[in-house]
Write a structure and sequence with these properties.
The relative contact order is 0.15. The longest helix is centred in the C-terminal third of the chain and has 21 residues, at about 300-320. Strands 2-4-5-6-7-8-9-10 form an eight-stranded antiparallel beta barrel. It is mainly beta. It contains four helices and 17 strands. Helix content is about 15%, strand content about 45%. Strand 8 and strand 9 (about 160-175) form a beta hairpin.
Length: about 375
């Protein structure tokens, strides 16, 4: 005779996911900007004696591609303006940096038409002078990283004005090792995003609307809004007419085994039931099992407690060593004579109480009923 007990704990989690994109709008945009730039250190290089008049006006043009409404990539060309100084030979010098840029941009809308932005990338710069005052010509190129932040306002779906700040590092002239500069830029940028927003849906005629308000499956959601037609009539549904699921707990019989009197040795005939339990665990790798050991009410209670623990351990060890179930999925515990399945002091009661039971925990989902 066998007594089978299974307790399955069922858990269902639903994670909502929503895409954020402007329907009808193109991911491509173009723009340009004007601002002022400050090279630093401007007049404390070892070749500089006196600062001159700077021409700090900077400009840029750019094009970008949006992966979504929050993240994109931008390619541009920037001119950071020029700086002047007098060297220790009393010659007037100048320098300016310009070049192509490539960077990532991120946007965070925080009001109806306002958004914050952040960016990071690199500038393939050319740094050079104009050789206007009988100075030696020099030029060098390199890669300068930059970071930036800004705040923008959308006049329309397509047109945005943004205030920008950028910081450039390592604008170095390494050929003669005379310049090592950074740069701070402040400016305004105007950009245009291609495409147009999807037009608002036109209201259907009154006659058509009346016909569309039919609820064929009687779930409380009209057919024109029902994404799950023919839902069972006893199922609770959401606003789109689809079944709502919940956490649930159910019980099923799995299989238990009996032991001889005063023994924790598994009978050969019981291995078929242990194998069934092992196969179930292999088919459901997310499940765990507790092996509960029990004893008959013969002899001392303390001895029977230890005996029940040995019975549970022997089944747990068989699951691990013989059938390959990982030990971290198995727990064994003894209850002694505290949970008899048959009351009384008869031979049949003692036989039925010398047993183990398997308690399996797993996940499943169940429809919520009305």
């Amino acid at each position: 005779m066998m007594k089978n007990t299974l307790k399955v704990v069922l858990l269902t989690s639903m994670l909502p996911f929503a895409a954020s994109a402007a329907e009808g709008m193109s991911p491509w945009y173009v723009g340009g900007g004007l601002g002022v730039n400050n090279y630093e250190p401007n007049c404390d290089q070892k070749t500089m004696k006196v600062c001159g008049e700077d021409d700090p006006y900077a400009w840029d043009v750019f094009g970008g591609y949006l992966f979504n409404d929050y993240f994109g990539v931008e390619l541009g060309y920037r001119d950071l303006g020029r700086a002047e100084w007098v060297d220790y030979s009393n010659k007037l010098n100048d320098v300016g940096a310009r070049g192509m840029t490539l960077g990532l941009v991120a946007f965070y809308p925080f009001a109806d038409k306002w958004s914050l932005s952040a960016e990071a990338g690199a500038m393939n710069y050319l740094i050079s002078n104009k050789k206007q005052w009988n100075t030696e010509y020099y030029s060098d190129s390199g890669i300068a990283p930059y970071v930036g932040a800004g705040i923008g306002y959308n006049f329309t779906e397509n047109l945005k004005l943004a205030a920008k700040y950028r910081r450039y590092e390592n604008l170095d002239e390494e050929k003669w090792n005379t310049l090592s500069m950074e740069s701070n830029y402040w400016g305004l940028e105007l950009s245009y995003r291609f495409g147009s927003a999807a037009p608002a849906a036109v209201a259907a005629p009154v006659v058509a609307a009346v016909a569309a308000d039919v609820d064929s499956d009687n779930d409380g959601v009209v057919d024109r809004l029902d994404k799950c037609p023919n839902t069972p009539s006893d199922h609770k549904v959401d606003a789109t007419g689809c079944t709502v699921y919940e956490m649930a707990t159910t019980k099923h019989d799995l299989g238990g085994i009996l032991f001889a009197n005063n023994s924790s040795v598994i009978n050969q005939s019981s291995y078929a039931d242990i194998e069934k339990l092992a196969n179930y665990m292999k088919k459901n790798p997310e499940h765990t099992v507790i092996i509960e050991g029990h004893a008959s009410n013969v002899g001392k209670a303390s001895y029977n407690m230890t005996l029940s623990e040995r019975r549970a351990n022997s089944v747990a060890q068989a699951l691990e060593s013989k059938y390959g179930i990982s030990s971290n999925r198995i727990k064994s515990v003894g209850y002694g004579i505290t949970k008899p399945i048959v009351e009384g002091n008869t031979a049949e009661a003692h036989k039925q109480n010398r047993r183990i039971e398997a308690i399996v925990t797993g996940t499943e989902k169940r429809a919520v009923l009305k």
